[in-house]
């Protein structure tokens, strides 16, 4: 049985659809990431599920219960806001148990749950502080604790890590995922960061312009992107699109950076010139430009690349690694051969 | 070397700080502190007359003041005036701010309407209300007559005059205080309300647990202003009742004016002024001590 079902959800803001006929379902205990560029309707979708916006059309069902028109408080959800939405005049402890107090949970139980959750997120020593006296990461934990302590079966998160620095973001990714699995929460997690989606999700819903572009596991999205947009959005660096490769002009061919190799120049027109070298430690991203088109092609080379800027090289790849898209619609033409054992980058 | 620097730095910065403060200190001293001290000294001297210069009389002026029933009448009136107008003005201001902060159509027009009394000079306000209160054909009486009531001399009766001038003060002040509340309300991030709604807080709970505490600094500010105004604003009393009938609307500052500039009794007036100042100082101190601890400043 699906835990969360979203059916043909539409939300209009003054005639413009921010969410346009979105349907998906999330399994019980799964972490579903809503991924997409800024303004694609992720937050609106989440807020519709939270009951903070009224849908123009569509249905939201949680555990067989139609909650489309229920007030937020009766939906049995918890939510972590991008801004954390902590009450600045309350202490960490008061912030965490705010909802329990409002719902009339007895003091003894409140204290017990507070103690447990505070230990879980590592806030035990900060319970008497006000949010203003905490670092960004600690505030994030308070917001997380407030969501966890409510023990709701569904947890919604809107870009919870976007205000943290890169190192903390990475730690929190792992931590949130571990908590979600340990507590068995069903989670919908909004982000524009494909790394968060790839590393945390059981299921990724990639959105664009208010509609779903592709839904699937991180591996599906990486290995068999359904559209050119998905191919370019998921994975870093984005997939190379090679114009006019092959005999068919209506086809766009995509090859990922790690599926490409640099070969000695052949001397014919297909050679490219090295224009950038980005050393990452374990590997190097070499950027090349062919004379006949503008877009740089990025090649991932293990270790340090021997290439120098200005040198010429030929590009080579195994045709099995080609992703083929229809130029007009941007949709995928070929199924990706199920031969790979690569894990997503 | 560094030792020398350490000893030098604080002195230099202190001197600079004092130099920077000097202009405002001079202004404050000239126009506030020195007059207060001068008034305090004057209050221990008799009123200078043409043939008898002022001489030291100790606490005589204060003794006379305490013996004067009109002083007590004015003081009690003023306390009633403060106790009535302050909570009413603050409560109405908050209610109006909450109302125009919500997403209703035409709210900017409403905000302007609420704010209008603040922009009007007190003299104009008094004139408007004089018309409202006029027995027989004033607005209030016209309404009363329409519903079969009888005419009332609001400002002419000892029982209603004080309440009538209090209403004017509330009407004038509430819009002003509303602006501060409105500004503070708009500082509260909307996602706090959303987070609280998801946690199950009703609108009232949210107000009690979040909005009201976050408005505390504004409330304190507004209260201090309201208290000062309750003892300071007497323009409309001049215009509407002249302190009457039979001192029914006489308040401290009006009393000081009458003693000082109608009866030219400087000794008595300075003593009264000191009492008013002491009262205001105590009230302000009490507010900060009482509320200061509970206020959360961002
Ligand atoms: N309250 C609103 N009123 C009008 N337009 C809105 C509102 N909220 C969002 N939108 C519009 O809906 C679109 C999707 O917004 P949002 O869901 O916040 O995007 P995302 O979270 O993916 O960045 C945007 O174009 C945004 O301008
Ligand atoms: Mg968003």
Automatic annotation (TrEMBL), chain A:
GO terms for cellular component: ATP-binding cassette (ABC) transporter complex, substrate-binding subunit-containing. Pfam families: ABC_tran, TOBE_2. It comes from the Bacteria. Its main location: membrane. SUPFAM superfamilies: MOP-like (SSF50331), P-loop containing nucleoside triphosphate hydrolases (SSF52540). It is found in: Cell inner membrane. GO terms for molecular function: ABC-type transporter activity; ATP binding; ATP hydrolysis activity. The keyword Cell wall biogenesis/degradation does not apply. Residues 4-234 form the ABC transporter domain. The keyword Transmembrane helix does not apply. Keywords: ATP-binding, Cell membrane, Membrane, Nucleotide-binding, Translocase, Transport. It is a peripheral membrane protein. Belongs to the ABC transporter superfamily. This is sn-glycerol 3-phosphate transport system ATP-binding protein. It comes from Enhydrobacter aerosaccus.
Automatic annotation (TrEMBL), chain B:
The chain crosses the membrane at residues 79-100, 112-132, 161-183, 212-231, 268-290. GO terms for biological process: transmembrane transport. SUPFAM superfamilies: MetI-like (SSF161098). The keyword rRNA processing does not apply. PANTHER family: ABC TRANSPORTER PERMEASE PROTEIN, INNER MEMBRANE ABC TRANSPORTER PERMEASE PROTEIN YCJO. Belongs to the binding-protein-dependent transport system permease family. This is sn-glycerol 3-phosphate transport system permease protein.
């Amino acid at each position: 049985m699906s835990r969360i079902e979203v059916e043909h959800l539409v939300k209009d803001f003054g005639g413009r659809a921010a969410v346009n006929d979105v349907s998906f379902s999330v399994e019980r205990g799964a972490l579903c990431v809503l991924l997409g560029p800024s303004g694609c309707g992720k937050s609106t979708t989440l807020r519709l599920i939270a009951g903070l916006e009224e849908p123009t059309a569509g249905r939201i069902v949680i555990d067989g219960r139609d909650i489309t028109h229920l007030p937020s408080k009766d939906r049995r959800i918890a939510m972590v806001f991008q801004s954390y939405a902590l009450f600045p005049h309350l202490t960490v402890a008061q912030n965490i148990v705010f909802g329990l107090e409002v719902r009339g949970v007895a003091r003894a139980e409140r204290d017990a749950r507070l103690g447990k959750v505070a230990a879980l997120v590592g806030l035990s020593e900060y319970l008497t502080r006000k949010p203003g006296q905490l670092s960004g990461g600690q505030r994030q934990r308070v917001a997380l604790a407030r969501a966890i302590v409510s023990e709701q079966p569904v947890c919604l998160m809107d870009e919870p890590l976007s205000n943290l620095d890169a190192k903390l973001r990475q730690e929190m990714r792992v931590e949130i995922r571990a908590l979600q699995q340990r507590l068995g929460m069903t989670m919908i997690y909004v982000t524009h960061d494909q790394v968060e989606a790839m590393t945390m999700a059981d299921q990724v819903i990639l959105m664009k312009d208010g509609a779903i572009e592709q839904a699937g596991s991180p591996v599906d999205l990486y290995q068999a992107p359904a559209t050119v947009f998905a191919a370019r959005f998921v994975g870093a660096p984005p997939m190379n699109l090679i114009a006019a490769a092959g005999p068919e002009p209506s086809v766009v061919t995509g090859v990922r950076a790690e599926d490409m190799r640099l070969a000695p120049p052949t001397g014919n027109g297909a050679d490219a010139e090295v224009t950038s070298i980005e050393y990452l430690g374990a590997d190097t991203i070499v950027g090349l430009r062919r004379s006949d088109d503008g877009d740089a092609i990025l090649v991932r080379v293990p270790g340090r690349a021997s290439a120098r800027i200005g040198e010429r090289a030929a590009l080579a790849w195994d045709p099995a690694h080609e992703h083929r898209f229809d130029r007009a619609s941007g949709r995928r033409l070929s199924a990706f051969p199920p031969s790979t054992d690569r894990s997503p980058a | 070397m560094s030792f020398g620097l350490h000893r030098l730095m604080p002195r230099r910065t202190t001197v600079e700080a004092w130099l920077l403060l000097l202009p405002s200190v001079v202004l404050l001293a000239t126009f506030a502190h020195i007059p207060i001290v001068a008034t305090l000294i004057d209050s221990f001297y008799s009123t200078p007359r043409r043939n008898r210069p002022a001489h030291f009389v100790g606490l005589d002026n204060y003794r006379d003041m305490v013996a004067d029933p009109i002083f007590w009448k004015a003081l009690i009136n003023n306390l009633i005036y403060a106790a009535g107008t302050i909570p009413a003005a603050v409560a109405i201001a908050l209610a109006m701010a909450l109302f125009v902060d919500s997403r209703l159509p035409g709210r900017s027009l409403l905000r302007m309407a609420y704010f209008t009394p603040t922009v009007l000079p007190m003299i104009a306000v008094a004139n408007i209300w004089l018309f409202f209160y006029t027995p027989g054909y004033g607005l209030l009486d016209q309404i009363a007559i329409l519903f079969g009531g009888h005419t009332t001399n609001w400002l002419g009766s000892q029982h209603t005059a004080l309440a009538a001038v209090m209403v004017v003060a509330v009407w004038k002040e509430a819009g002003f205080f509303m602006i501060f509340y409105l500004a503070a309300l708009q500082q509260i991030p909307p996602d706090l309300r959303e987070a609280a709604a998801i946690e199950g807080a009703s609108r009232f709970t949210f107000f009690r647990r979040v909005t009201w505490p976050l408005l505390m600094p504004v409330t304190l500010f507004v209260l201090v202003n309201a208290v000062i105004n309750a003892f300071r604003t007497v323009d409309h009393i001049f215009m509407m009742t002249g302190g009457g009938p039979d001192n029914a609307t006489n308040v401290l500052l009006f009393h000081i004016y009458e003693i000082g500039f109608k009866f030219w009794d400087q000794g008595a007036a300075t003593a009264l002024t000191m009492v008013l100042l002491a009262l205001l100082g105590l009230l302000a101190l009490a507010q900060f001590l009482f509320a200061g601890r509970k206020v959360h400043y961002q």
